[in-house]
């Protein structure tokens, strides 16, 4: 969240909390009641009134999500389908591409979000102006039809039984269009009674977990398939088109000309798009090149193509290899192919769009010096045609492996909706929210174009990246957190790198935990060994914030709620305890016994005192500073969403418990009781000032509530940040859902995750854009943590350790998993008196020394047999309660397409 005073004042004004004067805040009449004896009553119902049948359905595999034209569910859909850090390209509900935020124009203040507009929202007391960073796209979602900056599309012609039928892949041309998401791939099917063949389009960019380079191509693949489902032969003609988008924003009349050039090889055809103009235009952010390609043979190229309206003549356009158009005239290129289809046969046409815009926003260059040399894809490829040639040369590997991942991710017994919601937020990496500069540095806003500097106290929630592209997180730790953002003399980590001048306590602690996670997601201990001296300093800085030595951080320091809270704050205390535990384990691995003991003592003292002093018998609180008291903003005796965040983090990296289970569960139950509601409407109407991230009729977990109806629950001198307390921010909700899942509160976890899924249903807004401070907010990638805990997944790459402990359906469970060097599928099943477990590697390899599983039924297991591709593997086995621990005599190397099978008797 942004912390400048200008933005704070602006937010406060727009929230209706500030009327005049900066030195002394003057509150409007309704706001005065917030700080008086008649503070709004807590009005979240204890009884949630959840339909038992609906709750039961959440556990089931169910059906894949599908959005239909007939239900008016297509207009808001925008799935990111470009490469990582290559700008934003959306595929819409009918398969057409839109948005085209590939020009690097996104920047804080004037080009935030996917649509830089202010909207009106009635918060129950007044109509407020809502900016992008305050949830504009939540209140008024952007409609695809209004943001098609460039013309792009497909048409299909069928000649069958003497009849010619032509349709565009546009929802207006079909009776039914069905959009089926499986991020990173969207599948769109088209249906009409007057069109006898089956038409399907798959849209995605190469996306290969653990391969950050080939997942970051500035390109989109469009795989069009037409199948003859009739008993008659048919002639099928396909044509695709793409507008030359070079200098689309900057080229005015007389500024130069657009140019399209056709070319081909034995297995590809290309329309290469450029712009010829002045030297000044060559410096613009939208100057570069594009390429529209067909990956196959026997295609016709049209450097100039005028498809509208699409008719028979459109398919008879003469082949033209070069064409120009004076700015601002539009220039469109097309590529077509024709094939005769016997009954039952199909044709697949693989197209792609690639782009190359390497001029960084001048404002970004001033903000981050690394942006000065452009982007990594700009360094890797000369132009968009070079991107397309690379894509074509490796087309089989890139597309097959992407589709293998989609198949692997969805080859599971976990619910379709759950797999969709916990994974899709990683699409943030494929938006204008993230960048990778020419020197390889990864950098991000918090949300698209808002709040600079890959903020530690936001990104620490985002578990997805470290599990899917761990090299990005490792580089960020080394290059920024222990590099340009690190203070050698103190060990402090600037929480926005060079874009900030001080640390944040939660960001510091969370980053220590991330050091441990990045170590676990590495194949060996090189990351930890290389960085340990600086990691140790960072831990020492964190430990030093406990001034009285009781293991509870008590130094006033900024946190993710953009304020400096004073006193002993449960969620920050607990987070530091978890970080100290991670530091202890890292120190032990590095042989630093003295430091390990120091951390262990801190953890023991902190846990004892936190449970004694900060637990009120029902939940964990914020104990005021003994001198300041409750004068300043804080959570105090209220019920705060992150109160046991440290224990939540511990589950993500397989730490021993850092809080007693009974107290942690009590805190989660209090959050369910006091903060969660199936309808936030009554609450946000009375507790005003928050941003609209959940609206009337929608469920959610409110950030901070006052269940005991204290008169001044958040302090005497409340500031603008109070508005946060009344919001439902999905990243925090996902964090709680992940923790609930880990503690066995499976139903509550599923409900909380499902209400977020329902808030982002395509009938209401874009399912692929979870919003906090602007669009595609990074914290929402916390959703992957709920998948981790649902599987009970743990791993430690350097030690060769892996573990699974599914939270339901244990007798027949299957899930994908990723490790440091490979990914695949884990399954367990109860069969008679035996239980079967298997690990199959679909990609890469897995070095395995120790495997930890669970007993499916009660009782003791007497023996286990392990085979790797039918070859028996020697091991030792012990059971401790429900935990089954297998240690292999020699470290196994399970390679691609190999399976490890275990039979327990």
UniProtKB/TrEMBL annotation:
One of its GO terms (molecular function) is hydrolase activity, hydrolyzing O-glycosyl compounds. Residues 78-391 form the Glycosyl-hydrolase family 116 N-terminal domain. It comes from the Bacteria. This is Tat (Twin-arginine translocation) pathway signal sequence. Pfam families: DUF608, Glyco_hydr_116N. GO terms for biological process: carbohydrate metabolic process. InterPro entries: 6-hairpin_glycosidase_sf, 6hp_glycosidase-like_sf, GH116_catalytic, GH116_N, Non-lysos_glucosylceramidase, TAT_signal, TAT_signal_bac_arc. PANTHER family: BILE ACID BETA-GLUCOSIDASE-RELATED, NON-LYSOSOMAL GLUCOSYLCERAMIDASE. Coiled coil: none annotated. Residues 506-784 form the Glycosyl-hydrolase family 116 catalytic region domain.
